[in-house]
């Protein structure tokens, strides 16, 4: 396998690759029977890898049910439903008036349509064949299907870099890498589900173009890039990584026409296509994220020109030309850079979007944009999460990097660069671990395959040198200390005088084959297999236990071994859906916006899109204000129902009280009268009797703990593990209309204004009395 | 006041009727009415003992309902009763037909004509039971209650049974769900018992007279009304009947006023009029039961299998208070052989129970769709109940081409009494079952065929394109390489034979066979190798292949020569009759070189394989 891939690389490097069958140069030189067998075997293995990638993600369906997970997937599901019902043109023009009330949201222009259109197309094809699967079913299984595709794309990418064996290993690793599973279990209907496939496939086509110099693949590459742009905001990673690699190639003197073909069409076609996606539009040329690609586009042309001139001119002329160009070019470039810098500096965010900035400067978000910092998946990861998400790959990756340098080719340098950059990004945001996972799989695949090749080869050629030893009848004897191989055992007739030369010969050959002693190889293979099994066990565990919970249904073990189901969220959403007015507005913290619109079909004030910070701050302010002010804010927003998530009764930790400080922070960021210190006692966030009066009187506290103390008599909050500070109080402006079985969702209705008149009056009266006294 | 005016109208109507319609002089000798008000449906059983006092034999009996009650009528049936001593047995069901009495538009009575089992001669008597069920007659009052309050309902009826005949003796019992009665109209003699109110006995009540009574009492039974039920019964001749039922359920009792407090509901048990549990009685051997709504599975359900039925107990997502609604889907499968049978004439029929399997509900509108398998013909429905509407549709499901015939039955106001079997007859050829599998097989066959065709044909746009040339060349190279490898193998085989001869020589010391073996060497081989090598050089531009081949050829040649040399030397040595030790020592350098070469050649061959 290794000889082949080495030969492969060699063939490719010289640009003399014959044909473009994609099987790889090495396959050319084998018997056609063997070749066909290898291809069929590889196809079979790939097929099995695809099935495994699909089925390992079905734990969520088997353990729970076929349902859309979490938050964002619900929005995507709702959009897909709209797309399948109304058609593509309606979808582009969709103005959604059921969210961000009263602003609304232009869905068609603000959403990455790749996922939706993919699932919509799949649904449409199925229905064209009269297979009546529901949109929900298609959405639930989109992610597992695409993870099979992603595994195949990984095979293509890796086999393009290091041969088919490495490709198969990498595909198998990717099919079950926990980091990717966490985003693509059945039901996790999010952009990343298709985007990772698009990412890997784009990289594959880039490397393929780089290896073949075929314009056909260059065009495909631009199309794949277009699909990626449609699918995920992470496309900026591609459009920065590829220019970086091109630059690296130019700087290290690896410029070739293949590099030009791989890059130039991608920039032109890719940018044009990207600009077609409404959500990107002119950003494709105007924001700083895309700047690098254009700069490198200029540089590659300069390099191309230089190469051309070098070919045309004599060496002497060339050197004078170089010095001439350098002096003037430097001056010109300096001026250009100065102008650009001035332009970029003129814009407040330096032309970068908030999320990109928080990538470049990890402390940026926590300083300026609490709404980005408040999302848990935007936090930096911890070391255990690396082990959890990529497991043994973390140890294999360095070996893979070394393998990539033996020998270094254009494609292997690309893979190394991909890994290095993604390691950095994953260190900034835990969510971007997802980008690291494919890189880690590719490199680990290469490492594993190389290691296996070396070990099996040393075993295989052991026989050869052995037979040589037997035949010669004059081979090594027992005095040979360096050799610790089987050979010694079979040594029959030691002939001391002659053995030295033979020994040397064998030794030399060994070196060329990177041979290892038999026992060492066997132990090495055994260790590798153990490590692989450990990885498999870990992945299956992660898929089954850690990442398959849909988060809208919670379960716990009952003492008698049964399963207790907490289905409160859907209980509340179903109640809202069936028992409130069709056009009633429902306010809640933005986390639940997407679910409310999708499951309860009610208009919400804010949702997970978080495009309007002020609006979210308004809701945050209302939640942190006293009852009356909150009522006024909600009344001004035409809100009829408010709901809060409360985990204090059953001990559900991610409830609104725990998220409350973010509401205060975000609200305070826009409305300065909300100040975080008012809610903290000596810098500690608490809700017990030591809590500040502002905290105990804010709406969030009251809605969460209304009549809570009556439930158990003490008011013991099982999440905060403390008794609540204020136990008995009345609500004057809100009325409890529904509370779910485990109190996890509590829905309140705003009291109508006319009933308040008397309350307000009586309050005034008492105030008057007080003042007169 | 109102009562007396009604009486008056009744009397007027009577006179008009008496002159025209009542030719037969039937008299109700004894009448016993029991009204069951314990659920949301008012179920009445009236037992008539009629006598023919006229001269003509009577064949028909008229039963009357007030217009008000008729509007709520869901179900009516009659049966003749044979009385033997004290035991009464309903012997035969009688046909009940609604008849119009245009003669008296002022009357608010609606008449049903019941044909008697046999005509009643003068002086003869017969006993008839009439059963009917009224829905939505129990109206909650007060209309809105708080969570902590119980639900009171009103029921309007008449103390006298509305009858176009003279009723000599009658009694009415109203059976109530609880002992709490808020108020009731008194028409003496009236007696309030435990969970029961007795009106009567009244004697000689003139025809069509009424005495309205209003009862207000506590009724906390679930007022579960299915506003719409869409039921789909899909027959698959592969062995299953799939049933899917979409419910839109509403609590039609007193509306909930104010908020709902979970605390009061859980801790204090408030909300007695709300309901949480529903039960469905499904056929025996029902399987694959699911209970879900549009946002997913609902986990609160239990299935109990009994020999005669399957009971599903389930809860909606939340308890239903007055005015609250919920939608859900209940689905299950039953074995085909339990429900689809072969008729004597060769056609098939589905025998299924009409209505909802839910216990204690009223269905306002049911739409039952029977989806027949693709390829079935001439569907017809036989139902022992009056359907409101019936038509046919076509549905496309899994891989259908022409679609499946769907029989749609619609009925409004359905109660438990309507749960009777109905039949859908259709003709079906079992071969039609194979259509879809065959289609799939054919589809895959075509796909593989296309793949094969693609791999075996040339599709280049231009025969002179570089890629095409390259592919041709590659194939040529592969071919040459194969031939080359074959030759090499032959060469190796030869070498092995020579070696064997040598070993024999060493053992036996006989020179002759060894000499003979030399002749085995085919001199043409090297020529062939050379030819192939040249061809390879001409076609292949891949230097790595060429260099490998070249190296192999040279090494092999060297090895071959070395072997021959060794052979000659050995033969020579043996012929010179040297001592074996000496021979050995002489041979060693040859041996070493040869072994080395041999291993190198083997390695090269292997690398060529890759």
From TrEMBL, chain B:
Gene Ontology CC entries for this record: oligosaccharyltransferase complex
Main localization (coarse): endoplasmic reticulum
Compartments it resides in: Endoplasmic reticulum membrane
Membrane topology reported for the UniProt record: Single-pass type I membrane protein
InterPro entries in the record: Ribophorin_I (IPR007676)
Signal peptide: 1-23
Coiled coil: 546-584
Associated pathway: Protein modification; protein glycosylation
Transmembrane segments: 431-455
Gene Ontology biological-process entries: protein N-linked glycosylation via asparagine
UniProt keywords, alphabetically: Coiled coil, Endoplasmic reticulum, Membrane, Signal, Transmembrane, Transmembrane helix
Top-level taxon: Eukaryota
Record note on quaternary structure: Component of the oligosaccharyltransferase (OST) complex.
Function summary: Subunit of the oligosaccharyl transferase (OST) complex that catalyzes the initial transfer of a defined glycan (Glc(3)Man(9)GlcNAc(2) in eukaryotes) from the lipid carrier dolichol-pyrophosphate to an asparagine residue within an Asn-X-Ser/Thr consensus motif in nascent polypeptide chains, the first step in protein N-glycosylation. N-glycosylation occurs cotranslationally and the complex associates with the Sec61 complex at the channel-forming translocon complex that mediates protein translocation across the endoplasmic reticulum (ER). All subunits are required for a maximal enzyme activity.
Membership in a protein family: Belongs to the OST1 family.
Protein name per the record: Dolichyl-diphosphooligosaccharide--protein glycosyltransferase subunit 1
Organism: Selaginella moellendorffii (Spikemoss)
